[in-house]
Amino acid sequence: METNDLYKIIAENTEEVLFKDRNSKFFGYAFPISNEDEIRHWLEVLKKQHHSARHWCYAWQLGVEKPKYRANDDGEPSNSAGMPIYGQIKSFELTNILIVVVRYFGGVKLGVGGLINAYRTAAKMAIEVAKIEEKTIDVKLEIGFDYKNMNKVMRIIKEKNLKLVDQKMEMNCTLFLSVRKKQAPEILEIFNSLFEVSVKKLEN
């Protein structure tokens, strides 16, 4: 079974985008996030910045292998704002992201269809101006051996182009490697087959 160990994030906060429909204004923003405290922070920032707006609707997704998400309509009709925003996060296959769309009411009701279109479009515009980066899911391996086996361990690290993240050189040697998830079974097997070398996968 092929392991999908790639995911996408945005590199930095985006520039403000604006979508207008019948005098209503929808300002879109996208933020890279790593926890729920950051979500609260950016919502507070935007509520101060747009204190006279009517709605601050948003959606976010956090995590890679078991992502969690939330979509909030903030007083708009049910599923007319948060889910269309979240739909764009899914469409662009992004995670660790918050998208907020701030609405100023223009005096003309747009109806649920109009709202869905407006929130979806503002969210899409916010993502389209973002710098999207692809990342890999990595696992950490701990390799233990004594000094006489240093050369054969280092040869594998070099041949397989593995990333060394830490090392402890005491009575014995311990190396910590970061390996792409889909490459990990092969690397574990190689080190397991070496005489006098131990290897274990660490929990992240």
From TrEMBL:
One GO CC term on file: cytoplasm
Transmembrane stretches, start-end: none
Segments forming domain PH: 1-51
Organism domain of life: Bacteria
Pfam families: Impact_N
BP GO annotations: regulation of translational initiation
Similarity-based family: Belongs to the IMPACT family.
Name of the protein in its database record: YigZ family protein
